[in-house]
Write a structure and sequence with these properties.
Helix content is about 40%, strand content about 20%. The protein is an alpha/beta fold and about 350 residues long. The chain folds into three domains: about 1-115 and about 195-275, Rossmann fold (3-Layer(aba) Sandwich); about 130-195, Obg-related GTPase Ych/YyaF, coiled-coil domain (DNA polymerase, domain 1, Orthogonal Bundle), CATH 1.10.150; about 295-360, Beta-grasp domain (Ubiquitin-like (UB roll)). Strand 8 and strand 9 form a beta hairpin. The longest helix has about 35 residues, at about 115-150. The relative contact order is 0.13.
Length: about 350
């Protein structure tokens, strides 16, 4: 799964990307010309606690791909324009993060000359709406021709779905706000429509205003009219400094700024949520590992993520929830309490389940 960071130049997007990816920042202002991708570990306090209990030889976190698209900049005509190269990069992402500037810095001018997060969000949204509108219009024309000459009923079934989407986008509404059932979504699954992608808006504050960010966040929510979008306040500068501190100093630093949770942790966790992902754990002396699965996966599906043979030769899954395990402290005590159990192939795995797969 891949999330894409998009935004205007000098929004702090690449600073955020480098911090997420653990890349050491170079002095000076970033002028990245090419897209960059990194596989990033997803922090999980539950895995850290399990490590202390089992003390395995190896710990393996879940991972997610972060894609950094070069920031949109002012062109020679004094306007910020979205190119086809930019759009093609963004289309490959499974979910989008708009990185929006709220910090002031007189040494780095905003591409649109002043700080206005609502305007910046609306600019990106309007460009993505136009892209989707153009695609849907072309698709409708092709489908109408196919309906006339083809006996394939799939074209007749798809046409009203595309027309429904077109009407929604033409009204300047992103597709993520349109109610679509599973069958309708299947028709759209291969089209990479930009406004259908799950969206999170990460608003980049400076270190002096991050503690009082809620008023601006509320203003953004009331103006963008998209209840489906998550909004996360953060400070790229603070997050970069936090990433270079040890655990004890990090806690002190966060307390000084009134930060309860690192934005990086929140961003990565939100990525999981908006992509419909969750984690289960396997534990032991050799390795503790977090495995990524989609919500709704069965025990047999989860076994297949570990190894194909485990899916094909699945017998049972030994299951205990993370909370129960921490509460009772051992598998033996979980069995005594009746919270350790055997489940069949149709058991729906829950986030944080600890599994041991029995197979032939």
């Amino acid at each position: 799964m891949q999330i894409g960071l998009v935004g205007l130049q000098y929004s702090g997007k690449t600073t955020l990307f480098n911090t997420l990816a653990g890349i050491e920042m170079q002095p000076g202002v970033s002028m990245k010309e090419e897209a960059t991708i990194e596989v990033v570990k997803v922090p999980d306090e539950r895995l850290e606690k399990l490590f202390k209990i089992f003390n395995p030889k190896k710990q393996v976190n879940a991972t997610i791909e972060i894609f950094d698209t070069p920031g949109l900049r002012m062109q020679d005509d004094g306007k910020v324009k979205i190119t086809s190269v930019f759009l093609n990069n963004v289309k490959n992402n499974d979910a989008l993060f708009y990185v929006i500037r709220q910090f002031n810095d007189d040494t780095v001018a905003h591409p649109m000359n002043n700080i206005n997060p609502v305007r910046d969000i609306q600019f990106l949204e309007s460009e993505f709406l136009l892209s989707d509108l153009a695609f849907l219009e072309n698709r409708i024309e092709k489908l109408k021709k196919e309906v006339m000459k083809s006996k394939d009923d799939s074209f007749k079934k798809e046409l009203p779905v595309i027309e429904k989407c077109y009407a929604h986008v033409e009204s300047e509404n992103p597709l993520r706000t349109l109610k679509l059932d599973e069958n309708e979504l299947k028709f759209l699954s291969g089209y990479q429509l930009l406004t259908l992608k799950p969206l999170t808006i990460a608003v980049n504050f400076d270190e002096n205003t991050i503690a009082d960010s809620q008023k601006i966040i509320n203003d953004i929510k009331s103006n963008i009219g998209d209840a489906a979008a998550n909004i996360i306040p953060f400070s790229a500068k603070i997050e970069n400094e936090l990433s270079n501190l040890d655990e004890e100093d990090r806690k002190i630093f966060m307390a000084d700024y009134g930060i309860e949770e690192s934005a990086l942790t929140k961003i990565l966790r939100t990525s999981y949520e908006i992509l419909g992902l969750q984690s289960f754990f396997t534990v032991g002396e050799d390795e503790n590992r977090a495995w990524t699965i989609k919500n709704g996966y069965t025990a047999q599906d989860a076994a297949g993520v570990i190894h194909t043979d485990f899916y094909n030769k699945f017998i049972r899954a030994e299951v205990v929830s993370y909370d129960d395990f921490i509460n009772y402290g051992s598998f033996a005590k979980c069995k005594e309490a009746g919270v350790w159990r055997l489940e069949g192939k149709d058991y729906l795995v829950k986030d944080g389940d600890i599994l041991n797969i029995r197979h032939s």
